[in-house]
Amino acid sequence: MIEIRNADFCIEQIANSGQCFRINKLGSADIWQVVAFGKALTVHRVDRSTSVFHCSPEEFQSIWVDYFDLRRNYGTIKDLILTANDPFLCDAVAYGAGLRILRQDLWEVIVSFIISQRNNIPRIKNTIEKLCAPYAYVFPSPHILAQYEEKDFCSLGLGYRARYLMDIVENVEAGIFDMEYLKTLSSEETIAYLKNFNGIGEKVANCIALYGLHRLEAFPVDTWISRIIQNRYGGNFTIKNLSPYAGIVQQYMFFYQRNFRRKKNVS
Predict the structure, then answer these.
(1) CB proximity list for 108: less than 8 A, separation 6 or greater
(2) For the chain, what percent of residues have pLDDT higher than 90?
């Protein structure tokens, strides 16, 4: 077991942030299972600043330190965001203080966010669980998914997204979509490259850049973010001064709007 003390890490907030779909709560206690890179990790949140990772020191260092971006000082980034003196961002940072941008497997992110289009988080998680069920903790590779027919993807509830997934699998297998080449591109080039492929528009391309390539300057605009920009900023929101960490800003905004402000408005 590894105990970490970090007030800028909250496994529950990360699980509910919309950036990953294989972190699930185990029972009623604050204990979570994280599945990534063929491993299953149990994380117990003891208190606001203390979490226990149930794994060996070797596994913690080789996988989970990077996965949770634990070498980065998010406190410093939050301080930078707060210098903007933006009341909404200040509230969002305070509410989502334990969020971090994960360093996920690129292929898993590509598949997950193709599935995510015009979809809600519970349905996305359910579809991905069905897709992964035959392979335990290992996310199915392009080669494995190339054995599927479109009807197989449709049976998982993908609907029209099944064609998008088929296309991207075929392009990866044919070497037309090159994930290693993608990693060498600038952020602007990355978005342009991704948008060449069926089923990947501006929002999904930015999600892949942010969550799959850890391009922290990427800023995905979905329904929640669009609503914030229109209602809070009159359609004129700029991240110029925060651009190195635009993706982290986006996470705070999204999490705050989707969780706290929505519940507050409903009540």
Answers:
(1) 36, 139, 212
(2) 82
**For residues 251 and 242, what is the distance between their CA atoms, to the nearest angstrom?**
13
How many Å apart are CA 156 and CA 198, to the nearest integer? 20
CATH code that applies to domain 2-95: 3.30.310.260
Residue 128 CB partners (closer than 8 Å, separation 6+) = 21, 22, 111, 112, 115
Q: What's CA 35's distance to the chain center, in Å?
A: 13
| pTM: predicted TM-score of the whole model, two decimal places | 0.92
Run of H or E including 40: strand 39-47
| Residue 112, burial from CB neighbour count under 10 angstroms (0-12, 13-18, 19+) | buried
217-247 pLDDT, tens digit per residue, is 999 999 899 999 999 999 888 887 788 999 9
Looking at the chain, which residues constitute the CATH 3.30.310.260 domain(s)? 2-95
